[in-house]
Amino acid sequence: MSKLIDAINEVVAQFLGENRTWTVSEGKSGYNNTTRYIECDEQKYIVRIYESHQDLKKVKLEHEVLLKLQEIRDLPFQVPVPLIAKNGDTMVRLNDTSMKIACMYHFIIGENPTLDHPEIIYSFGQRTGSLLKALYELKLNNTMIYRPYYEIEHTYPELPINKIAEWCYDPPHEFTKYKNELLWIKQQLVDFKQYVPTLKKLPHQLIHGDLNASNILQTSEAISAILDFEFVTNDLRVMEAAVCISELIVGEQNQTRLWENIEAFVNGFTSLISLEKAEIEALPILVQLRRLDVFVHFLGRYLENIDDKQVLEEQIVKAAANPQWLQEGGENLKLLFRN
């Protein structure tokens, strides 16, 4: 803990000045980075230390998107505002052996929603549509870093699909209790490549790529902020909706409530965005792709000893949840978007 406090003290000094009095607290934080909440002179901030990569180009792109979104008038949600450090940049490297990248942002009021009420899910759909419209207008100087979702073999370049399939077919002993789930994931990964030529022809634009309950904030009955643009890239426009719907499916086992929630999201989304017929046809496989991609991401982190096995176990269960989705739910989903 003392090492983390030393790192935070260094970050605060770089962004707010030397010898400042501050307090730190923990709050909700994702798997990929270390997040702490800072209070200094009655102002609240967030310190973020990147754990999943040390690539300045990725953070520069993320911050360019955030700063340009700030310039859009009447944007119906907030996004994080990065502070400027003494070096004149929005990021610093820690002055220790880790050389990790760190940033500070102004604190945004709000709570992560549970996404279990149609009203807030409708707002989620609307905000997703609003974000897509805003991102479509952005002209960026920095180049894209991440590849589109459908190029899943590039999620972890050192972990090609054939190696993932082998791992799923013959996992380490501690994962053998998930044999059925892993065999299903393996087959889904192998089968997916047949869809890629068609997917490449669909409309592309800048997307957030990771919209879920942990990356949005709610005040009252509406989504008030969108967070964590770390994975922003040029991808299928419809992939943004697919990511959101995938999260709704994983989080709800009651089928009646699930379809009420999906319909609420679709109604909010389509109030602002009209998808092409081919995009709607691709939605079910893209919903599945999101779950496969998250599994590959966390398998890579596990093999690099970033996460323990409990984290990967959780992602295996989520990836293989509701395996009948493609057969039973895909047509219903497409029907909702057509109406």
| Largest sheet: number of strands, sense, barrel closure | 5 strands, antiparallel
What is the CATH architecture descriptor of the largest domain? Alpha-Beta Complex
Strand arrangement within the widest β-sheet reads 1-2-3-5-4
Number of domains: 2
Contiguous helical run count: 11
Rg of Cα set = 20 Å
Q: What proportion of the residues form beta strands (DSSP E)?
A: 5-15%
Total beta strands: 9
Q: Indicate the CATH topology of the largest domain.
A: Aminoglycoside 3'-phosphotransferase, Chain: A, domain 2
Report helical residue fraction: 40-55%
- In the CATH scheme, the class of the largest domain would be Alpha Beta
Q: Structural class given helices, strands, pairing?
A: alpha+beta
**Order of H and E elements:** HEEEHEEHHHHEEEEHHHHH
Uncertain parts = none
Description:
It is a single chain. By secondary structure, the chain is an alpha+beta fold. The chain folds into 2 domains: 2-106, Phosphorylase Kinase, domain 1 (2-Layer Sandwich); 118-338, Aminoglycoside phosphotransferase (APH), C-terminal lobe (Aminoglycoside 3'-phosphotransferase, Chain: A, domain 2). Helices cover 47% and strands 13% of the residues. It has 11 helices and 9 strands. It has helices at 2-16, 56-70, 118-137, 161-169, 179-192, 196-199, 237-250, 255-270, 277-303, 309-319, 325-338, and strands at residues 23-25, 33-40, 43-50, 92-93, 101-106, 204-207, 216-219, 222-226, 233-236. It has a 5-stranded antiparallel beta sheet with strand order 1-2-3-5-4, covered by helices on one side. A hairpin with a 2-residue loop joins strand 7 and strand 8 (222-226). It is globular. The protein starts with a helix and ends with a helix. The model has no long low-confidence stretch (mean pLDDT 93).
